[in-house]
Please model this.
Amino acid sequence: MDKELKLTRMAKYAWFVLAYNLLVIIWGVFLRASKSGDGCGQHWLTCHGEVIPSAPQLKTVIEFSHRMTSALDGLIVIGLLGWAFLLWKSAKSGKNSRVLKMALGSFLFIIVEGALGAGLVLTGNTAETLTAARPFWMAGHLITTLILLAFLSLTAWFASGGKPFSFRAQPKISLFLGLAVLGILFVGMSGSVAALSSMIFPSETLAEGIAKDFSATSHILLRLRVSHPILSISVGVYLIFLAGWLKGKFVEVSQVSRWANTLSLLVLIQFASGAITLLTLAPIVMQIVHLFLANAVWISFILMSASVLAERTVTENISFAPEMQKKLI
Model:
């Protein structure tokens, strides 16, 4: 009973770590959108060569505060890993082992995330600077963020009593989920390109922005920007149909239905958010809302997938049990 209580407390902490990471990501969006990424110059770990900036401008305050919240993020993820390790050491059960593995993945990707952030600063790929490498830096940063959120979500999932799952239990479902993952990653990368191009090449009106998108003389980033709404709508519709199909297959499983409904609702809200962001020429507040919803869609998808695969694994194991008994006899 005491061990279960400890795991319950850790589950609450794991959900807190996930929520805190969302706040750090939102602040990172504000940092980029406000063009404050060069607030500390091309210095890291220091800020303009100082441990604590002595006469900071507003953008320096924004950049420095992002570094502080990110550093704290690293510490709380280390705390998550340490807690998971202590629980596993006290009782080396399958549940504790799964929590430890996910916490370890979270720790590894928080390090990669920090390294990419430092790389952006040290190479000068911040604020309004545009280099040939910057779109790739941003795409890598975004993919790393999504993987980190996936590990944190699954850490909280397993700590909260989530069942083990297998991708081999149902190949067809795993294939459809895998396609959704690829789709979400491509949408995210196209979104990072769209955000960068809108920041570097702002437009005064919607008509001017659309004209830039289709002009043969525009920068390649502007011409790629149109891919984001196309991919977003296509993948969003796919996610809604996938969620509905999975909900129908697991109609008696409350967790699958809950996360499938949540995913579908968030996708629809994201459609509205994307339209408003486009029509209002992407003000900072809408960029924040849009990326927050994108991360919420991703987390909901991860938890829906875990629920489906776990349920299917249990079903498959039950269905194979009599055959295994016959073989044993």
Summary: Residues 284-328 form the longest helix (45 residues).
